[in-house]
Here is the input.
Amino acid sequence: MILKRFNTTFSDIYVNSPATGVATSGISYSDEPVYVFTNNTSAATTAALAVSNNVYFSIYVKPFSNGQLTVTNISFKAARGGASTARGYVLRSSLDNFASDIATADLATQRPTFTDVSIDLGSDFIGLDDGVEFRIYCYTPSSGQSVDFDDITITGESTIISTNNGISSYKELVESVEAGKECTYYWRKAPSVTVTQGIWFDMSMSPGMPVPQYYAATPMQATPMSFSGDKGIVHGYAPTKYLKSITTLGTQANPYPMNMILCDYLMFYPFIDEGTTDPQVLDNTNSLTRYTDGEGVRIMLVTQGARAGSPYVTVSYTNQDGVSGRTTVSHRMNNEIFNGGIATSNRAIADSGNPFLALQQGDTGVRSVESVTLATADVGLFAIVLVKPIAQTQILAVSAPYEKDFLVGNNQVPEIKNDAYLNWVVCPNGIFNASVTQGDLKVIWN
Here is the structure.
């Protein structure tokens, strides 16, 4: 078995109405960004009222597939956003349907001085088969006042029971290598467009090796992707294989450091029209052929034709449990004019920035997309693409290659499904134009 230690990040935080929270910077903290939770209702002036009126944000964690979850501690830094008191928090969990307090306290410090909070959890949080939601309720003397958080961390472990003859120890890895069950595969890509700093970009649409693809298929119809049909990065023909390591290298200094996510591209819905605000219903005659339960599958919107403005967009989908009618968070699209850009990524504007759409609270995956709706009409086209993120790495600088070994560094080797279509989404930290990005994947099996 493999033990994986984890911490949450701000991408795991969901904010529930009637309160609003904003991740912000530039407010004289030495450690930014912080999470500013603003109480926009007078109904949460005490701890009891914050709970009864559901003024909270929540963090959800779950075990790996075929595993169990143990959560041992929650820690964070917190401060009053101003001088008035009392301001504080209440921590509850879904294990008892949020019926009792795990911890609660008034905050004694005011920004920029944080109070360190560390909460040890009991035996109820050991060996959980399902995920757990933690809610942090916040209260202030009146509306418009805030409680500020930083370094929110959940500590624990998820135990994975290895199945399908997986690589679950260093001994098994060495045995696979000694038996010749290892191969290295190379890739090389160079975008033919000028990618703007801070915009995530889909490298599958770039020339190089593997050959590009352009999501060219019947408009708005679900189209599965595979190595046998669409190519992608070569990863071998073993029925079950695992990613041991990735090496990446760049040739121009401008775009680095650059974050990179290796994805299994599962299915896409091409040529979504941005010229209407009517809900556009998609054709799901076809369905996922890998990760068919939708667990861990994410949605990204890839530009196929330039837009003029920055409309908001929401997507209706069926989640990992087969529940339809779920709705993503409303995201703002960027107005970049190059094809291949992730339409909802732009770290310079609010409500945008990530490559994947934020799902409805509690959801952990997507089986299919039902419809898409724009708040305002625009010009342009985009594809909705369902992907399973496999691994994350980076290029730090042009001066040296970067290698990431997953068993040594992560204590876990990601599985690559048979016939997977692999490619990259990347986020350059400078202008990215015709810069050759290359590297290799080292794959093992047993």
Q: What stands out?
A: Residues 170-444 form one domain.
